[in-house]
């Protein structure tokens, strides 16, 4: 068995790549992994460590073919706010706007309902989505890349994460390891001050365009509550900016207004959203969809992006897309 280095030691990108290869390949004990992850998170992971760890995970994934311009919209999780599934709804809305979406996600590790949990409650067969991912992406413009289907190396890691019940570097690695190899993303993280560090990791890995966003209150998506830190990453560089809901012609709302629950609760809320129910959940989805549409190159205006998202909902396109997806993913 390999001996993990002290978590107090900052690893180079190449050393992190090697160490996380050991972790993913089962070359060290579960107890050592859990301790290492918690200690690393406590002192904050560096951009070099995140990039190296993500490279290790990428090397062990099962990829899929994806159309040019495919995007992903996801959060790292672990923000403790237990909100409704915003990025899952955004994926449906953005796909209904004509942008192919390879939604990468998992079951809840530190929240009440992850993307996989809520989609399953809506009627998607989580065993079938992996087999039909390329088909649904090609024919409908959307797929769900269930982490356990595409990251077999994570099989032994997920129980460790669930037992820990706290945010670790694996929350950060997942969005950087999409099996469709997407080059355009909106990634929400739970630490505003950490946005430039995570953006630097993404820049080391390269991207056509990615937004890294965090609400000032520590929300792992663009927040309606106040301001947001946003890094605009293109190629191997990034720039920081501040954004808020007013730029998208949307009202401010407290995080409590989109508080979620178990998978059944979140699925019901998502169905209501797609049926046109107004309110903060819809507005949060419009805000984050606008960001995703900007990243995808569909618009460069936040307000227009939010309008496009609203039209995808009100026209019934997003609701019909979900129904078609459930029917095809079998």
Automatic annotation (TrEMBL):
Domain Glycosyl transferase family 3 N-terminal: 10-60
List of residues binding Mg(2+) 2: 220-221
Sites where the protein binds anthranilate 2: 161
SUPFAM superfamilies: Nucleoside phosphorylase/phosphoribosyltransferase catalytic domain, Nucleoside phosphorylase/phosphoribosyltransferase N-terminal domain
Source domain of life: Bacteria
Residues holding anthranilate 1: 75, 106
Cofactor binding comment, as recorded: Binds 2 magnesium ions per monomer.
Molecular function per GO: anthranilate phosphoribosyltransferase activity
Chemical reaction(s) catalysed: N-(5-phospho-beta-D-ribosyl)anthranilate + diphosphate = 5-phospho-alpha-D-ribose 1-diphosphate + anthranilate
Pathway(s) of this molecule: Amino-acid biosynthesis; L-tryptophan biosynthesis; L-tryptophan from chorismate: step 2/5
Entry keyword Acetylation: no
Top EC category: transferase
Binding annotation for 5-phospho-alpha-D-ribose 1-diphosphate: 75, 78-79, 83, 85-88, 103-111, 115
The UniProt record lists the keyword Transferase: yes
Cofactor (UniProt): Mg(2+)
Chain residues that bind Mg(2+) 1: 87, 221
Domain Glycosyl transferase family: 70-318
E.C. code: 2.4.2.18
InterPro entries reported for this sequence: Anthranilate_Pribosyl_Tfrase (IPR005940), Glycosyl_Trfase_fam3 (IPR000312), Glycosyl_Trfase_fam3_N_dom (IPR017459), Glycosyl_Trfase_fam3_N_dom_sf (IPR036320), Nuc_phospho_transferase (IPR035902)
Any matching Pfam family: Glycos_trans_3N
Known function: Catalyzes the transfer of the phosphoribosyl group of 5-phosphorylribose-1-pyrophosphate (PRPP) to anthranilate to yield N-(5'-phosphoribosyl)-anthranilate (PRA).
Assembly and oligomerization: Homodimer.
Similarity field: Belongs to the anthranilate phosphoribosyltransferase family.
Protein name as catalogued: Anthranilate phosphoribosyltransferase
The organism of origin for this protein: Qipengyuania gelatinilytica
